[in-house]
TrEMBL record:
GO cellular component: membrane
GO biological process: protein secretion
Predominant location: membrane
Protein name from the UniProt record: Protein-export membrane protein SecG
Organism: marine sediment metagenome
Database matches in InterPro entries: SecG
Gene Ontology MF, one: protein-transporting ATPase activity
Keywords associated with the record: Membrane, Protein transport, Translocation, Transmembrane, Transmembrane helix, Transport
Location in the cell: Membrane
Record-linked Pfam families: SecG
Membrane topology: Multi-pass membrane protein
UniProt record similarity statement: Belongs to the SecG family.
Parts forming coiled coils: none
Residue ranges of the TM segments: 6-29, 50-72
Amino acid sequence: MPKYLVIAQILVSVALIATILFQLHGGGLGGIFGRSDSVYRTRRGIEKTLFKLTITLAVIFVILAVLVVASAP
C-alpha cells in the first residue's frame, strides 16, 4: 500500500473536519422532531465556498479510501 495515499487521506480528512466545523452552526436536532424554525435560504460568500469545499473534500476522501483499500495487499 503506497504511503502517499495514506498520508493524502489523513490530510484530506483533517481538512474535511475543519471545513465542517467552520460551517454555520444552529441546525441542531429540532428538524428531527418537527420543529420548523429554520428558513430556507441561499448560501452566499464564504458559506457557499465552504459548502462546495466540503463536498469536494468528501468526494476526494471517498476516492482515496477506495484507492487505499484497492492497493492493500
